[in-house]
Amino acid sequence: MTKQLKLAIVLMTAIVSMNVNAQKKATVKTTKPKTAQSTTESKTSKPTKQETMEWIAGKMKENISTHSDDVFVSYKDGIFTYRNNYGSRQFCDYSFDLNKVTTMNDEYSKDFYIQGRQLIYVQCDYDKAGQGNFYNNLSMSGPNYNNYRTAFSFTPDQALVDRLKKAFATLIEYNATKKGADEKF
């Protein structure tokens, strides 16, 4: 029985080593060198302005703060609106116009905010129609040193904050005023 056991162990070892060698050869054969076509396929194109705004609005909708009674109302053509209920029948509607985002914090700041002229419009139940207030700054995450308006809870997810910064940088490029054909600077 011991001779058979020794023979079985030797055979198993030989089979295992053959399988390992076969696997090594298979990986060498299947590896393809990169060609110009395969590298261009892996690159993604820059999203359009509309796609960028829709992605940002989707993340804003997912992350409306739950510490107060904030409720998503609508999103259309770059305008994101939510309602803040501050009483049993009292509310304010906040509209963020993503088409007006023109700047954001510098890359070294822990305080992530966006800015734009009349970026936020706030219409409360006690305001007459069209007589709300405009604000130019919105805090997205971080310590909010300047006490800007904030409605989102992006701070705990640093990977999402980094992706939002890239998306806003892209949006700012789209929103930048373009030089006229006759302008030199």
TrEMBL record:
This protein's record includes keyword Signal: yes
Keywords attached to this entry: Signal
Disordered: annotated segments: 29-51
Key word Signal present: yes
Signal peptide per UniProt: 1-22
Ranges of biased composition (kind: Low complexity): 29-47
Highest taxon of the lineage: Bacteria
Protein name: DUF4468 domain-containing protein
